Amino acid sequence: MAKKHMIIRGLWGEIDGWKAKSDIVNAKRRDGDLDFVCYTFGEKNHNNLLEAGVNSVLLDTRPHVYPFHFRHKLDIYKAAMEEYDEIVFFDWDCNLKEGKSFDSDAFWKSVRSKDVVQCTLYRWKRAVCQWRDKRHDQSYIMNSSFFYMRDKSLPATLTSKYDTLPNKKWWRGNDETVTSYCIDELMGGWKGEDYWMEHFESELYYQGCNPVFKKKPNAMFNHFFKSWKK
User: Which of 69, 98, 192, 225 has its CA 20 to 30 A from that of 19?
Assistant: First the structure.
């Protein structure tokens, strides 16, 4: 039997707030008939998504469950990996490149070609991954706008680390920091850009904010939130 796989998104907080509504409208416009499931916090959010024609799974009737915004993502990973063998999480502003069509076979073949996770690497100006020895390496961090996984134990690992690391000086409630920490553990410690590209870098997604790898001829998806800066 073929492996079950799915592209997923998530929604928490108030759908009428910040840019959630416009992101949903733009995603529908840019992605066309791209099949995905949204794991949702908040009954109103869930109903609004259903009315917009989005396949929504309600995780909690409350729009906010955790004090830190990005903690909700980890529950979304957990729920999705209980349902599917492999997933790719998309932020709402991760969308098909203009003029591209979605080739499902090429997409899943590409993400399976590397390690059990795939994402993109970018750099902050400040040191965010302070467990690494060298200051030069501490600004490299994964981006979770496009995040592939096929390890069913990973969501529990991420949640455990997230919930037990708040005493660390570098911990700021950011899912990307904790996920980078877990990927470093997976590779036996940070091994540099070349190792990352070989094992973890997605060939299919171009991260528009400070990307480490700028040439991606096979990219199907782009990051559209160009006004956001680190």
Answer: 98
